[in-house]
Amino acid sequence: MEFRQLEYFYKVSSLRNFTRAAEVLHIAQPSITNAIHKLEDELGLQLFDRSQKKVTLTPEGQAFHLRAEKILYEVQQALSEMNDFKNLHKGTIKFAAPPMIGAYLFPNIFTHFKNAYPTLDLAVFEAGSLAARTMLEKEELDLGIIILPENNQSLNTIPITREQIMLCVSPDHPLRGNTSIDFHSLKSESFIMLKEEFLHRQLILEECSRHDFTPHIVFSSNQIETIKALVASNVGISFLMNMVVRNHPNIVSIPLAKPIFITIGLAWKKDRYLSKASQAFIDFLTSYSRRLHYRDDFGQ
Question: Where are the transmembrane segments (predicted)?
């Protein structure tokens, strides 16, 4: 059975006229007649009662008409939906953003993207960079804005911005007046950290290891606002990106004597099929990143 046979049958059965159906479909009437004969032969049933001058459906034809109507409708809906996807009128991107990045970098990106593509949806998952990277590699996500790994053979990446990790202390903390801090001088401090799924935490622990000490971690959280509140209350020290604590009224941010920088960027799995919606986001973010770097370079 061919799809055109269904179309021809449905048009004839709806109009009750072979000649009129041929005119509407812009084909010769014999083509319709032959196609329907072949359809009846294939089904082993007579769909039209040809004993009368007027075109009428047999009971089998009436049942087949209802089925054909549903099939043609679903095909048309599928074609319309695919056309929406093709023209970026529809689409959902499964997306990851760690809380620190999500709260301070992503909102601006999201706003500009939605202005450019109002009919595309972003299903955002809050996950640390390590967890998000695993989800990307398992193809559980389409894209993610994460702290980019130095070496990763399984991901494509686009850098967006470079951030410095700052030591964060309370205005009442003894270290508050320092212009920079040697990491080894933090051995006796109480640390407030992000949880294990965050690459940010791993970087700090590696720095502790390089300075031959294991930090005293008094609290771990995946909520940036909780960490900031605890630091401001002088419960302990923490390490946050400069953009998170810049000009914060209740937190003093101090650069490390040997600065730690991280690169934030967009990542997706290599060789994975990308929907047109995902590709649109990649193209958008590539352009956005260039504009961001331009403003940084020229002070705009």
Answer: none
What type of residue sits at position 219? F
117 & 49 share domain: no
Say if residues 65 and 59 touch (Cβ distance below 8 Å).
no
> Number of folded domains in the chain?
3
Q: 12 CB contacts (<8 Å, ≥6 apart)?
A: 18, 21, 32, 36, 48, 55
Beta strands at 155-169 and 238-241: parallel, antiparallel or unpaired = antiparallel
- The three-state secondary structure class of 50 is coil
pLDDT at 295: 45
Q: Which domain holds residue 186?
A: 162-262
- 95 is written with which tokens? 């997306």
- The distance from CA 154 to its chain's CA centroid, rounded to whole angstroms, is 18
| CATH code, 156 | 3.40.190.10
Could you tell me the CATH number of the domain that includes residue 200? 3.40.190.290
Does residue 40 carry a pLDDT above 80? yes
Based on the domain organization, do 135 and 19 belong to the same domain? no
User: What CA–CA distances, in Å, run from 133 to 101, 166, 202, 204, 230?
Assistant: 14, 24, 14, 19, 28
Residue pair 159/281 in contact (Cβ under 8 Å)? The answer is no
Could you give the angle at the alpha carbon of 171 between the alpha carbons of 166 and 176, nearest 5°? Answer: 55
Spatial separation of the C-alpha atoms in residues 71 and 28, rounded to whole Å: 24
pTM of the model: 0.67
> Which residues, in sequence order, are CB contacts of 162 under 8 Å at separation 6+?
261, 262, 263, 264
Same domain, 167 and 255: yes
Helix axes 3-15, 18-25, angle to 10 degrees: 130
Residue-wise pLDDT tens digits, 224-277: 999 999 999 999 999 999 988 988 999 999 999 999 999 999 999 998 888 888
H-only helix segments in 87-198: 99-104, 106-116, 129-137
